[in-house]
Amino acid sequence: MHPKRWFSLAAMVVASAAAALTGCGGSDAKRAAADAKASPAPPAANASATATARRWTSGYPNSIAVLGHSGSTGENSDPDQPGVEVRENSWATGSNPEVNSLYLRILAHNPAIKGHNMPYSEGGANVDQLAIQASQLLETDPKPELIVIQIMDNDLTCPIEPTALSDFQKKLTATLKQLARGAPNSSQFVVSQFGSVPTYARSLSRDERASQGGTGPCDFMTPTGKVVDKKVARLEKAIHAYEAALAVACKTVRQCTYDSGAFGRIVDRREYVSNDLNHFSIKGHAKAAAVAWAAIRRAGVVPRRN
């Protein structure tokens, strides 16, 4: 899914009070078929293992993985390759120096991480696919030491549907606990949504807003490019509710750190968005990497100072 919370919402058509977002990414149909074959759950780790202190080189992990949707796959980030996933542009695990991903920032401090950047994220992934990705990750040996998670977009309902929101939180909690049991020496880092609805809308031209416009209850941009404040507020309310679910789920696991809304406090710029208006550009991935790095340093996931 897109790294910005509001992109596909701008184009969705809501037929009832509880409307779920669609996934993104050109090959979602094929991915959905593959996702139907879930990997077997990993064996439970010894309970005492969860208390094992992580042993990272100089406080930096020796490996990193990312789970979630197309916000971290580099999809459509290269204007010369429209619709293509360019994984090296990922803000989390990419190798493009222009992005300076979390992986490259850690590599600058810990050479042992070189080559141990594992992308499990997929376009269109929701919380159910996240569980499958987690099972696949836990089949690796050794297990990744830093597990980055970007999820929510494809699960979000607007207006809020309480049962769907509750199910999302329960499923995410179960996956986080699964990762904690299966990879007790890892840390999990969960990110919020990037930017805000009103600043995103302001960053677009009227023609761009019109191209994303709709008439549903959460379509905050109209087919003529007008921004509807009432719908902006409705969508923001839904987003914050799901972000709260991210935070609550993360608190149930000792190894988990939530970014406390760091992504959501970013001021959006048009240059952060790819030509499809649904994904990060290279500059957007670079900004996301910088914000995520500052957040994990503040939280002490990696050393706070060089």
Q: Your description of this structure?
A:
This protein is of the alpha/beta class and 306 residues long. The protein has one domain (7-23, 62-298): Rossmann fold. Helices cover 34% and strands 7% of the residues. It has helices spanning 7-11, 28-35, 102-107, 127-137, 162-182, 197-203, 206-211, 229-251, 282-298; strands spanning 64-68, 117-119, 146-150, 187-190, 256-258. Strands 2-1-3-4-5 form a 5-stranded parallel beta sheet. Strand 3, helix 5 and strand 4 (187-190) form a beta-alpha-beta unit. Helix 4 (127-137) runs parallel beside helix 5 (162-182) and helix 5 (162-182) runs parallel beside helix 8. The model is unreliable at 1-53 (pLDDT under 50).
How do you describe this structure in short?
By secondary structure, the protein is of the alpha/beta class. The protein has helices at 7-11, 28-35, 102-107, 127-137, 162-182, 197-203, 206-211, 229-251, 282-298, and strands at residues 64-68, 117-119, 146-150, 187-190, 256-258.
The CATH architecture designation is: 3-Layer(aba) Sandwich
Q: Mind summarizing the main beta sheet?
A: 5 strands, parallel
Head-to-tail CA distance between termini: 33 Å
Net shape: globular
